[in-house]
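Data card: per-record layout.
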Amino acid sequence: MSSFTSEERAAPFTLEYRVFLKNEKGQYISPFHDIPIYADKDVFHMVVEVPRWSNAKMEIATKDPLNPIKQDVKKGKLRYVVNLFPYKGYIWNYGAIPQTWEDPGHSDKHTGCCGDNDPIDVCEIGSKVCARGEIIRVKVLGILAMIDEGETDWKVIAINVDDPDVANYNDISDVERLKPGYLEATVDWFRRYKVPDGKPENEFAFNAEFKNKDFAIDIIKSTHDYWKALVTKKTDGKGISCMNTTVSESPFRCDPDAAKAIVDALPPPCDSACTVPTDVDKWFHHQKN
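The structure for this 289-residue chain is written out next.
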């Protein structure tokens, strides 16, 4: 059971909506900087941004203080991914590994492109549909090297360590064997998901082949090193908020009261009285307008 909890502010599917994370003491923290990269030996933490089958494009707000999860906005409108045939929304629980950063100032030796300025992405393939803002522990299985508009955008493939079948998954070859077609669908989804918005298909390094667990962990470790340079101000974050409450060597560290003040200045928490349209209803409204 995770010691981290989440708190929603404002109503979901609005411009003001935010999901803040709290530690075991109920203090506000940054999911980007304060949640440890490792949950255990060879086990990583994952911040769930988008539950499987949903359409709202939620993400860690890297430039906002405390980096809450919020819905991405383009030209003043909330972003939703289309139901790209034959799929429904995101086909995995989607999120990021904390304390990682794909450095936009570093050209990746494998892709020849610089990083996308975000934490490294994770596609979690287990049976449970996770909740937005949930912190889970995952076993890394492999990785896909996507090139998104000229930027390196790694996609880690992982499985929740609490999944009943986790013991059967130890490398990317196990996904190929036990979930036939899932990796091919993953490439297809990432290749085409922006096409309905008028953008070209995404490209991939390694001829869109997935690399194995050891390769993936090496990539994750390198993004952790870039994050360390970022949060200790040894590299230019170019607008990223590094406000945190736990990184002792970081000049951006603040006390819990300062973190609380950031959240208290926002709209109140959303409780059971909040009445909001469903994710799908909002998406259809978005398409018609």
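Known properties of this structure: The first strand starts at residue 5 and ends at 9. Helices lie at 172-178, 182-192, 213-231, 256-264, 279-288.

See the next section for split statistics.
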